[in-house]
Amino acid sequence: MKPAEELLEEISRKRSALRRHRAWSAGEGRIYALLRKAAEFRAREIDAGIQTDVPWETLFELVIEWHHQFPLGDGDCDEEAAFEVLTFALEFSRWEQIEHGVRMGGYSVKRRGRDLRVRHAWDAALEAADMYLESRARPRELPPFSEAERRWAQARPVESREGPPFEVLKASADRAMVSIDAWRKSAPEGHLPDSFALGNGLTMGEATVLLAGIMGLADLCELVARSAARLESTLAHLDRQVMVDALSQLCPDVSTTHIDDLLERLTYRVGRSARTAPLVESGEKIILCPPLITSRAVDVIALRTAAQDASRFGRVGHNLGKRAKEWEDWFAAIPGVVARSGVKVLRADGRRAGDLDVIAVDAENKLGVCLEIKWPIDAVTRREVGKVENWVTSAADQLGRVRGELESGTAVAELPDGWPQLSEIEMTWGVGTPQQLCLRPVSVQGIYPTSLRYLIEAGDPPSLRSVVEMLKRPDLPKRGLHFSEETFTLRVGHHTVVVDTIGIRQFGWRPRFPDLT
Questions:
Q1: DSSP 485
Q2: What is the C-alpha to C-alpha distance for residues 216 and 295, in angstroms, rounded to an integer?
Q3: d(CA 371, CA 366)
Q4: Rounded to an integer, what distance in angstroms lies between the CA atom of residue 392 and that of residue 126?
Q5: Which residues does 122 contact at the CB level (< 8 Å), separation at least 6?
Q6: What is the pTM (predicted TM-score) of this model?
Q7: Superkingdom of this entry's organism (predicted)?
Q8: pLDDT tens, 207-224?
Q9: What are phi and psi of 234, to 5 degrees?
Q10: Distance (Å, rounded) from C-alpha 143 to C-alpha 178?
């Protein structure tokens, strides 16, 4: 058996052991017991000043996902069982990352005696670049809790189960809205306009104010728990109608129909991600998990909830595709460059061979760049990262086919009047995404993936030639200066598994266009 197959088989055995765990024989109170134990784990780490290498959102997400995989029994989920499930979750958060990387080809596995060595198979500098770019797309400052919120949290009796009065909830929602705006504006590639349609009549503007209300309530749960020194009590356990009524008060311009619709989209179901559907049903109540409610991913949450229904997402996806215009505007700002999006490519019989999503031309220097644009929803989990890479590799294949028809003369691009023909200029071809750089090498020669965030962070390009050079030879972090390749060790079966990981250095990095003068 090959080392990679052996490792995957061991992970499969661990998953089988998880399925047999006694916690899954528990009844309706199981999910609350598990989430409460997760909150307790998190509280202990915060109190101790420990920073885990596993995001707490991942642990909550795994617990919620597992709970929904197994039918309810009629027993109880005691403290020991809940503790064991959380231990499984902590372990599996690492194993699932490794499993995904091996299956996608991002990790190679070799045997060293009884040990298994898991190494990066792709260019680690690309992943380091993505990590730097993500860290830079953050607001410099977020608003603190208001005085009204602090006073209420400090005065609230520990044993009280009453929610905040309207004026406190309003102050919290307003603060959350400021945080949401700060996060959205910090994204170099831009954010969705308030008018963006999310299906069923719901707009991005409405979704944002409703999410601000929910996030404000989640923040208050954290604040109260901290004030009472009981961080394990951060969960909110409330009737759905209570949440509907609170949001109706906070957002009087949003119809109850749209409030109900968004709450349903935000409620976890099998097949959804708890990162973007963070409300959990427990009998007649909803559990609100503050670690899963974050202001940094509002656009992602809104789009993921729209994507849950394929019939609803068709138009949403079409409108996302129109954001290729943002690439056109970026190229058009380069000195001496003209750009156009949505250029048709036609065969001799008039049939459509495809489109050139964005093409930019420097007529004087006989240079051109054509990008196939994909605007997937930003990835917040490892699985979603893989889906974006699938989009990129598929787009490269698609563009390669169109390029082949253009170069063979079986199809012609309908370029604007006055532009040179493609045969008259030196063309460079690529695939553009909004945020994520593609780690997986594409199979089509001469097609270069990049991202709008990466190019914007590089500053203003002095010429189209500098963009061409950046596509072909991207400026990336240097190993040993900007990042290091480190390892962590796990045990599986009879093996010790040593896995590569990336450590970001203190030295700042940002891409720069080459100076070709």
A1: E
A2: 10
A3: 17
A4: 15
A5: 105, 106, 439, 440, 441
A6: 0.92
A7: Bacteria
A8: 999 999 999 999 988 888
A9: -75, -15
A10: 7
